[in-house]
Amino acid sequence: MELEGKEYPKLLVRPVVVITTISERGIPNAAPFSANSLVSFEPPLYGFSCSPAHDTWKNIRENGEFVVNIAGKDLGELMHVLETDYPYEDNEIEHAGLREENAKAVNPPRIKEAIAWIECKLEKYVELGDHIWITGRALAAGVKDGFWKEEGVLDVEKARPLCHIAREFFVEDMKEKKYKRA
Amino acid sequence: MELEGKEYPKLLVRPVVVITTISERGIPNAAPFSANSLVSFEPPLYGFSCSPAHDTWKNIRENGEFVVNIAGKDLGELMHVLETDYPYEDNEIEHAGLREENAKAVNPPRIKEAIAWIECKLEKYVELGDHIWITGRALAAGVKDGFWKEEGVLDVEKARPLCHIAREFFVEDMKEKKYKRA
Fold first, then answer.
1. ipTM of model
2. What is the mean pLDDT of chain A?
3. Handedness of CA B85, B88, B93, B95 (dihedral sign)
4. What is the mean predicted confidence (pLDDT) over B117-127?
5. What's the pTM?
6. Is there a contact between B37 and A47 if contact means CB atoms under 8 Å apart?
7. Which CATH superfamily is domain A15-171 in?
8. HSE on the CB side for B113, CA within 13 Å?
């Protein structure tokens, strides 16, 4: 079945993250994103696509730091709060009833309820279409206790990562499977 | 639990795609990628991260076209064949026993066994760390008959998209859930 090119995002299962930043005065901002990817291994670069008008971009331009909080299914119910366009410096973490934790390598806080986190320093950004592709160097990362398997891999069946496909449609409760690699 | 920054990719559930390109002489190449993302809505830009030494990049530089074939769980068993480093112009689609279909808007073929596809024309590329972030404009897209729901969304429970987390660990068999949006 043919689709228009502009409908292509609905074909990708995209991991939901909540990105935390701080304003010049140190007030936290949190916003969900699903247009994001692994970018480079060495150095370890993470990238996400952000509207130029977004408070997240305003804060990153100011101090060059952000934390990527990986959302589990528990955060699904809070998406509508986290993505509400509150006034600048109105703290979405508090609106959503989530708790802040100090990050280790950067100043913005991480979200305690996330299943994992990546602490990033802005590396490079590029305008691509109507968004800015922002890449950050992963200075530190972590995973909630109990969600990391002995084999050195996220326990998806316990952690229950949340992914997005389109509008109100998300995916969750996925199964792990091993496949042979080259 | 703390992790090193370089381990961060293992925290992201990344959609697996097989990207098809053609050489100057028209011989197809197919290779799996999971570092990929939605980049822009208008124009509709798709992006993925590719090693500069990869045949996929060689072909895209030559003719500026590629097809993103979204992998379902059936392609999991073929990952080790698709990612094998065969000599240039050795067709991985044939090695994997998959079938080629003509794309509508670009010259590289798409893979009949994929659950969906995005036909792209190179828009812009940028070196980011040890990879090249390649973005393409989605000229056309499509989904296998039966895998698209009335509501205009991929039927993940039928299509069974394949995602990657680390090494031989993949995820599949996910459930759909609706959440309220802002």
1. 0.97
2. 97
3. negative
4. 98
5. 0.98
6. yes
7. Electron Transport, Fmn-binding Protein; Chain A (2.30.110.10)
8. 17
